[in-house]
Amino acid sequence: MKIEPFAVEQWMNEFELRCTYNLAETCVASLTVAELLDLAGGPADLLAQLLPMKLTYGAIEGSDRLRAAIAHFYMNKQSQDVLVAHGAIGANALVYQALVGPKDRVVSVVPTYQQHYSIPESLGAEVVRLPLQAAEGYLPNLDRLAALVTPGTRLISFTNPNNPTGALMDAAYLQQIVAIADRVGAYVLCDEVYRGTTQVGDALTPSIADLYARGIAVGSMSKAFSLAGLRLGWICGPREVLKAVEVHRDYSTISVGMIDDLFAALALEHADAILARSRRIVRTNLTVLAAWVASEPGISWVKPVAGTTTLLHYANDLPSREFCIRLLEQTGVFFTPGSAFGLEGCVRVGYANSPSILAEGLERTRPFLRSLGL
Fold first, then answer.
1. 354: burial class by Cβ within 10 Å (0-12, 13-18, 19+)?
2. CATH code reported for the domain at 7-32+273-371
C-alpha cells in the first residue's frame, strides 16, 4: 500500500525537539500523573487497583468501565456502541480500513488532519476535497458539499472543532450535513478530538454520533483531556460499523494497555474537572493570542471559537515552510507551516500550551516579523 508522507507528523518529527517555545503543540498542556490524581480527588485505592493487576492483553474492545465512561459523553449510547483504539489516529485508520475500498467516493472537508484524505486515497478511493474558506468563517459551504455528495458516496469526513482553523459547526449546521449524507446513504465520520474546548459555555458540542444513524464519532484522551501519553482513543458509532472495524483491529491493535485503560477511565469519570482546566487554559491563552494578533499589522486571522489551534495569515510571499524554519532557527519559536495542510501564506499556531511559553514565544516572534517587513 502506497501512501503520502504525513506532512504534519513529518514536520513534528524533524523539528519539534529542536525548539524552545513550542507553539505547534495541539494538546492542552499535558497533565502529570499527580495532577490527574489531584483532579480526580486523589483516589486512595489507585495503588490497590494497580498492584494486583496482571498485565495481560486485557479487554480487547476496552474495559467495560472505560467504554461506559466514554458512552456517557453521548446521548442514549451504551458501552456496546464504543470501541477503544490506539489513539484517535488508530481509530480513524480503522474506520477507513473497514468502510472504504477501491473506487468508493469519499468527500473530505479540508484543511483537516491528513488521515482524512491520504488514507482513503491509499485504499484506492476517489477522494473529493471541499476546501474551507476564510471568508465563510471556515465552515463548509453546504451548497458545494451537496453538489459533491453524489449517489454512491460512501463517506463524508471532517473535524469538528476543525483542525487547524478552530471553526465549529453547531447542531443545526451538522443537521444540514446529515440531510445531505442521508439523501445518498453515506456515512459521516467526524473527528471530534477537540470536543470540550469551546470558548463559550461548558456544555459539550453536539456529536455526529447522536445526530445521525450512520454517524461515526472519533474521540481521544490527547487533546481536550491532556493525556496524550496514554495513546488512547475510541470510536462511537453504529454497531455494524464497530463489528467491521473489529475485523481489521485484530490485525493491528488487539487491545490497548491495561494501565492506559485504567487511567483513561479514571480521567473520564472526573471529566468535569479536567475539561474545566482545559477550558480555562484555552480561553486565557486565546485572549493573549488575540491581543498579539491585534497588535501585528502584518498578521490576520479568523478568530477560533473552539479547539486549540488557529491559522495566522501573514502578508508576505515567503513560503510557509521557510517562514517556520527561519523563525525556529532565529528565535527558538516553533509554528507549523500552512504547507503541511496544503496551504500557503499562513501558519498554524497552537495556543493551549503553558501560558508563559505562549506569551514568550509570541513576543520573540515580533522582531522576526519586523525582519520580513511585516
1. middle
2. 3.90.1150.10
* 233: CB partners within 8 A, 6+ apart: 84, 85, 86, 87, 88, 89, 90, 91, 193, 218, 219, 220, 221, 222
Is the pTM value of this prediction over 0.90?
yes
Residue 141 identity: N
DSSP-derived pairing of the beta strands 309-314 and 346-350? antiparallel
- Residues 263/249, Cβ–Cβ less than 8 Å: no
Query: C-alpha grid cell for residue 65?
Result: 468501565
Neighbours of 315 (CB within 10 A): 14
Reference 334, options 23, 13, 11, 12; nearest CA is 23
Q: What letter does residue 190 receive in the DSSP assignment? A: E
d(CA 190, CA 203): 18
3-state secondary structure of 135: helix
Show me where the domains of the chain are located. 7-32+273-371, 43-271
Q: 113 by DSSP, 3-state: which?
A: coil
Burial 49-70 (b: 16+ CB within 10 A, else e): eeeeeeeeebbebbbebbbbbb
Domain 43-271 has CATH 3.40.50.720: no
Distance CA 111, CA 188 (A): 17
How far, CA to CA in Å, does 19 sit from each of 108, 173, 222, 371?
Answer: 32, 39, 21, 20
Nearest residue to 345 via CA among 373, 321, 310, 369: 321
Q: Tens digit of pLDDT per residue, the chain (374 long)?
A: 899 999 999 999 999 999 999 999 999 999 999 999 999 988 778 888 899 999 999 899 999 999 999 999 999 999 999 999 999 999 999 999 999 999 999 999 999 999 999 999 999 999 999 999 999 999 999 999 999 999 999 999 999 999 999 999 999 999 999 999 999 999 999 999 999 999 999 989 999 999 999 999 999 999 999 999 999 999 999 999 999 999 999 999 899 999 999 999 999 999 999 999 999 999 999 999 999 999 999 999 999 999 999 999 999 999 999 999 999 999 999 999 999 999 999 999 999 999 999 999 999 999 999 999 99
Angle between helices 320-331 and 355-371 (to 10 degrees): 110
Strand partners of residue 229:
none
